[in-house]
Amino acid sequence: MTRALILSGAGRYADPWHPFAQTSACLAEILTGCGVSVTIATDVDAAMTLLDGVDLLVVNAGDPSRNDLPVPDLSAARAGFAAALERGIAVLGTHTAAASLTDYPEWESVLGGRWSPERSMHPPIGPARITLHADRHPVVAGLGDFDTVDERYSHLRVAADVVPLAAHTLDEVEHPLLWARTAGSSRVVYSALGHDARAYESAELRELLARATRWLTGR
């Protein structure tokens, strides 16, 4: 059976704004529905040393640089992550993943984007119209635009090769919210949606993440 490990924000990866335990449970439900065996880990750095046999790494964690907690010795964690990428582990990043794993130098190039403290922002959480580019990838093929209530990340630093699959428009500028790519041997999907459990009540978001899971795991 395909195995997934969800890195859920806790300790130095927690923040006051995102209920990571709740959203990780929502993600686990979606992945389980795709026939994936799921483990949730709350010690993010320790879990990076336990990636052998894991097929899909899900990052649902916050920005550790915002906390004053001590940084552990990360040599084994960095080596474990690098080895997993070398063998082609699939990666799903959700919402705050764009601001996370700041102590793992390759993370931004793998994910394809980063929250930039100097320019990234989001309007207040509220109703949002999400535009899908259904002709660009199997994850969104045949799906239509939808409305949701979520936090809309804007002005992310995005790699030049990223092809947006979903976006929102703010001040007449389209901002990517979902993309799929390949980094080395790894398939990667990033979804900027999913601030809280209410966001995961969206049937459309759940379908997007289920499709992403199936694409990432070759199901």
Overview of this protein structure:
By secondary structure, the protein is of the alpha/beta class. The protein has one domain: Class I glutamine amidotransferase (GATase) domain (Rossmann fold). Helix content is 23%, strand content 28%. It contains five helices and eleven strands; from the N terminus they run E-H-E-H-E-H-E-H-E-E-E-E-E-E-E-H. The chain has helices at residues 20-33, 44-47, 75-87, 107-111, 203-217; strands at residues 3-8, 37-41, 56-60, 90-94, 113-114, 126-132, 146-150, 157-158, 164-170, 173-183, 186-191. Strands 2-1-3-4-11-10-9-6-7 form a nine-stranded mixed beta sheet. A hairpin with a 2-residue loop joins strand 9 and strand 10 (173-183). 44% of the residues are buried. The mean pLDDT is 98. This is ThuA domain-containing protein. Residues 19-215 form the ThuA-like domain. It comes from Cryobacterium lactosi.
What can be said about the biggest beta sheet?
A: 9 strands, mixed
What CATH architecture would you give?
A: 3-Layer(aba) Sandwich
The total count of helices amounts to 5
Strand content: 25-35%
Tell how many strands the DSSP assignment holds.
11
Helix/sheet category: alpha/beta
